Amino acid sequence: MQSKISSTLSIIILGVVGMIFFSIIIVLLTFGRSSQGSYAKQVSPIQDGVSLSQASSGLPMHLRIPKINVDAAIQYVGLTPQGAMDVPKGPADVAWFDLGPRPGENGSAVIAGHEGWKDGIHAVFDNLHTLQKGDKLYVEDENGTTITFVVREVKLYDQNQDASDVFGSSDGAAHLNLITCAGTWHAAEKSYSNRLVVFTDKAAE
After folding, report:
1. Cα-Cα-Cα-Cα dihedral sign, residues 6, 9, 13, 18
2. What is the pTM for the complete model shown?
3. What span, in angstroms and rounded, lies between the C-alpha atoms of 168 and 41?
4. Which H/E stretch holds residue 62?
């Protein structure tokens, strides 16, 4: 008799524990789904480096800066193994960071170019430092559309200075930032001491 009572109690206890465990699993699954939904609302999906909600501009093809006689083809680059933005392969072209917005879309598009190429060869951004507030530059996309940008600021960064503002903005407007090397060449590090950034805003249509 005592054995039967013990068996019955064991079954009841196991049943209660099972129900509690099942309830905990249901709560966790519900919380997880709710959290994922909230997260999805905060972060836009990215496809080919462009938010699907704003993929309206065509791929950039050419950059023109009349003041410094720049008319350059645009290459597409991502990140180096060290986690830095890659650069164009030669002195004549520029490179768009294709993990960010396209020029003309909301956010900060970034285009890099060389300055001070070896053997005295002219590089596309040799005279970028001469741009001033109000100067205009133009990006032509694959659809033949030309987007105009106006220089807002020219800023010099130390080599190790935080330059995260070059790649991000939160004002809901479209920007294009141009970046190149500047300062003193360090042969041992194979790098310049500074970075020159030209911040521009999309012109009103």
Report:
1. positive
2. 0.71
3. 19
4. strand 60-65
Sequential pLDDT tens for the chain (205 residues): 444 444 444 444 445 434 433 343 333 223 222 222 221 222 222 333 443 334 567 999 999 999 999 999 999 999 999 888 999 999 999 999 999 999 999 999 999 999 988 888 899 999 999 999 999 999 999 999 999 999 999 999 987 788 888 998 889 999 999 999 887 777 776 677 789 999 999 998 7
Q: What is the DSSP letter of 164?
A: G
Query: How many residues would you count in the chain?
Result: 205
**Chain position carrying tokens 């999309």:** 202
Q: Please tell me the distance from the alpha carbon of residue 33 to that of residue 202, in angstroms, as a whole number.
A: 39
Instruction: Tell me the C-alpha distance between 127 and 137, whole Å.
Output: 14
Closest CA to 179 of 82, 85, 74, 102: 85
